[in-house]
Amino acid sequence: MVHDLSPFIFKISDNFGPRWYGFSYMLGFVCAYFLIHWLARRQRAGLSPEMVSDLVTYCAFGTLIGGRLGYCVFYDPELLWSFSSQLPFWKALAVHEGGMASHGGIIGIIIACWLFARKHSVNWVYLLDVVAIVGPIGVIFGRIANFINGELVGRIAPMDFPYGVRFPTDILNWPGYEFDRLSTLSQIAQKVGLPSGKWEELLQNYRMDQAARDQVFDVLNKIIYQIQNGDSAVKELIAPLLDYRYPSQIFAMLTEGVFTFLVLFFLARKSRRPGFIAGSFIICYACVRIFNEMFRMPDIQIGFQLLGLTRGQWISIGMLVFGFIMSFYWARTQSQTIHGWLRGEDVKLGGRR
Question: How far is the C-alpha of 339 from the C-alpha of 43, rounded, in Å?
């Protein structure tokens, strides 16, 4: 399968229109609002329905700010001091360059809950429990958007794996990391309008001429554009040139998203002390992330690190240790009882309310 999905829901112009990535975040926050509202009514822990929208707004800002800063700090620090002549000028704000980091988003949400708790005099740890339950729903939508965008691609899969995907977006990495592979695109470059021999000329001048470099990337983006807009001839030509990869984004959606949500929602059915669900989320998410990274390519500018692990795996190992420590700490410092969602006032259970 050659990935041919467009990142745009629909286009107003060639490069402008609503994108699935932003839409997925919106869906995640809408679902979070309704689920938190439902939980707050049943758990009776001081979070009024009127406060829910305020909490979701705090968490939305925490996710976006923390997620972007997390990517810059953990994966590409140069973005923090890089600027361009085009909007948004500061590259740390250019979300299309690298995207977001889920670990950073989690840190942002933790800070947002702490700020919200201070403002409204609510148990901070309880808020962490609530957002931990709904957080995986946002992961589900986010990983689907990652797949649509053709980003966070998987490692090379064996040819007998039945669900492998070839991502045309891979070719954007070839100039910096696999330059020799660009020569295989000569015929495709002609298909998208480049004169015969022009592609080879651009490659010869690539390292010495900025204009040639810009034209090379223009052609690469045009190839991707043509595939996303249904050019079957270009799609057929490029298929044998691309690596056959695991759909790691779908693996992450099922494990980091669906599996983690089901585990936490099941645990939250009974009354617990604050911190139990939050600690369970940190541990569960860290474990499945370590597993998923075995199928996902590390960020190309970083590669594999100590012991052959990725940056995401090492961060998740730290997260796992933190989860155990905080679970131990919260179990001994939290005395409030949070009702499970099966014990809600308006839920009939076995003939009782």
Answer: 5
Which residues of the chain, if any, have pLDDT below 50? Answer: 344-353
Considering only CA atoms, which of 161, 146, 180, 170 is closest in space to residue 239? 170
211: domain range? 168-241
Identify whether residues 237 and 316 lie together within a single domain: no
Report whether 256 contacts 135 (CB < 8 A): no
DSSP 253-306: IIIIIIIHHHHHHHHTTS-B-TTHHHHHHHHHHHHHHHHHTTTBPPPTTT---G
The one-letter amino acid at 259? F
Count of domains in the chain? Answer: 2
Q: Are residues 122 and 207 in the same domain?
A: no
Q: Express each pLDDT in 47-94 by its tens digit.
A: 887 889 999 999 999 998 998 998 888 888 888 888 877 777 788 887
Reported pTM: 0.87
Which of 241, 258, 287 corresponds to the end of one domain? 241
Assign residue 165 a region (left: φ > 0; alpha: ψ between -120 and 50; beta: otherwise). Answer: beta
